[in-house]
Structures
1.
Amino acid sequence: MRLVLDIITVVLVSAGGFFFLAGTIGLLRFPDTLTRLHALTKVDNLGLGLIVFGLLPQVESRLDALKLTTIWLLVQMSGAIVSQLIAQATRRSGRQT
Amino acid sequence: MSSAALYGYCGAILVGLGLYGVIARPEILRKILAFNVLGTGVFLLFGVFARRGAEAGLRADPVPQALVITGIVVAFSATALAVALLIRLNKDTGELVIASDDSAESGKQRVRQ
Amino acid sequence: MTLAFACEIVLAGLLLAIATWTITARTAFAAIAVFMVYGLLLSIVWVTLSSVDVALTEAAIGGGVTSMVLLGAASALRGSKGAVASLSLPFKITAGMLCALVAAALATVVFFLPDVAPTLAPVAKENLAASALGNPVAAVLFVFRALDTLLEKVVLLLALVGVWSLSSDRAWGGVPELRLYKSPSPILVFLAQILPPIGIIVGIYMFWAGASQPGGAFQGGTVLAAMWLLTMMARLQDVPSTNAPWLRLLLVVGPMAFLAAGLAGFYFADSFLAYPASIAKPLIIVVEATLTVSIGVTLALLVAGPPEKVPQQ
């Protein structure tokens, strides 16, 4: 049982790490602000979500699992709102990078 | 090399980097940034001492940790005061740097009340 | 060379690269954005060094509030036309060599550290039970070295008085000019309605849990300050006038409670800032609670800056 849980953790955290990598490459390679924001949302939602789900089999109490999930939800919310604010500021200022 | 020693060397290099930034960047805002980097380098050295003092079931010596927490708060107070002084200097004279003594004599300051 | 040590080498290398980028960035905005990243990376390093309380403080104050203050300065100075003459190359080379010397001297000190490190951990651990706290760093901050924490809180207040004194004489006691949008975006207002209830609970929890786990008054107070600043920036609450009595009372209630507990130590225990053993923990918690509130208000006002608008009579 322990081994199954560890395998789940490794697989999910690696998948999350892959999305982090993809999002970071997008941040560095995409041409302008809006496309870079689009790449970063993958990091916030999928990347962090997979890492959190991968860590859930390793926690000791339900309260810790709740805390981890709350962190993921808060990062999603703040990431979404900050992306909107940056996009609005970009459109208002007229610059594209 | 243990991990604590690795971060010790890292902290030493950060102190050098921060000191260079304070000396070599003329704009005051960049000096304040470099001062913060210098401060965090010093705190990292304290952290190395804390980590090496792990004993009696504790993973790190708590006394240097408390000193670093105090240091971080005091560094922030200094940064906030320095930034307020910089904004006031800019409002009064329009400068972003502190003029050296000879250029101050040439009457470039327009102090507005 | 274990995998963990390889990861630590990568982390240390990243830290140095980011620090170099902060120092050498071309625009102030880029330097401050990279400095934010630097603060967060540094808090990961603190966790690696098993100092979780310091990691929380670094992420909150070092990476968070300091970057806010610096960003505010960069935007206030953005339109300035002051001429900046850069320094000559020989000067920079000499400065670089001297700084390399300083770094080398510190690295030599690290290299020649004694094998058996001197430590106060056993002393702290055995006196921990007497203070009835579970977190050794909190015990050091509020029991063993309580004088340092009291003075640190007073330093925060003094910095605030210093910032306020930079206003013009007419504006003393007025409202700080926190740089706001004329009409904040509805999304910002949405965030300022959703996040502060959660943030206030998180801040209070961080203070409350600091007695037995990593956390404490400074970390919790910073989260409370951030939530208040968010509501002020979204114009859901007005920036208070700096001569409002309730504001000044909140600012001083923390240090005053701490000082009162310290002076009471003369009568009920041995000396200044000694706590009587029977009520040590409740007393520390009460003092820490007032300190959290004061720290939150002080940090938010330090970000808001000196008063600009003349107070209404």
Note: The longest helix of chain C spans residues 52-76.
2.
Amino acid sequence: MKSNAARQSSAIIIFERLITYESIQSGHHWRFSTVGGIKRINIDKGSDLRHLGELDQKLWTVLSCPVNGLEMDTRTLQLIDLDGAGKIGVPEAAAAPAVPFDIGKFVGVFAAISLALGAIGTALAAGIGGFLGLEWWKMPLAIAGLI
Amino acid sequence: MLLSYQFATAQSSDSLIVLEGQVVDAQSSGPLSYVNIGIANKNVGTVSAEDGQFRLILRPGQANDTLSFSFIGYETLRIPVEVMFALRIPVVMHRKAVKLQEIVVKNHRYKARFFGTFTQSAIAQAGFSENILGKECGVMMRTRRPTLLEEVQINFGQCSYDSVYFRLNVYQVMDKNTFEPLLSTPQYYAFSRAELVQTLALDIRSLNIQVQGDFLISVEYYRDLGSGNLYFKSALNKSTYIRATSIGNWKKVHIGISLGVFGQVEQ
């Protein structure tokens, strides 16, 4: 016969932990690389782009970049600049992959993400870093878009 | 409603913004207790104390946000944080005009039905990690036909407090993010630990609440209960809606607290 204590045992569930658990369940599995001694997130799959909005903004080292003056297609950057503020913020960069696929925009988005995630410090270096982070078969695609 | 802000403090040394003040009723000039105060959709908020006093700590980044003051029976007041700092004068609001419900005499039959979650099993219990003011949890229910709510039933589980205080809320769910309060007066309840052993049955017939479609009934802590445990008996195959502050975002968790309501459904 079980004791009273055993019969009264309960599973106690804390709401807040359930939310965290849900977040982990629905969250995207990110892959990291170490570049120059700095941990960076790899953006090498379409699903990475789709889940970009879920990425904790603490992991974004650059929170905005200008539309003009970068060695990237200005028109592409303007397309991502949804509010026309002349700069691309994290929400815009994260929202961009949700729209129908557009090769020019894809490259622009990628460059913007690279800017945001790059830990090297300059936009150009971050863009190059992002390009180098592509899988080999995506590089011609990116070049075509840039041209 | 008259909101009087006593800005005794501004920014502290660590740059947190501390707002302190008192909420008072315009007609009686007396303090207004348990007013929901916070920044909408940001899970930042508090509830005014019995003497109407409140204290809210904001992060520096929230200086450009807007504070909402919400209380059943009063017009919701929204004031930008920076304006509150700049004005430092009482803000006067008007009591919400209560639109009397249309009375329709119908020749319909009614059938009693239970909505929500009911379990008396203590095997699974769920609750907040902290039972502080403003925390709210409830159960979403649905009725296709007009239904008059009669009796809310809640089954609490483990309780380490001598007394438990909560406010009962009923919302009509307009869409995913819009929950309209249906009560015209706040409903406060207090129970001793001994009373929580049995199913709590709250007679709400006098409130004359009629619902149709999705509605949510919730329990909101309007007082800090202090450190301790308070859990609801729960069903694993149901869900609960929770939010950290009374003006914050609702989140759905996949465990259902034992909270439901008997209603008379129009046939």
Note: Residues 48 and 143 of chain A are 20 Å apart (CA to CA).
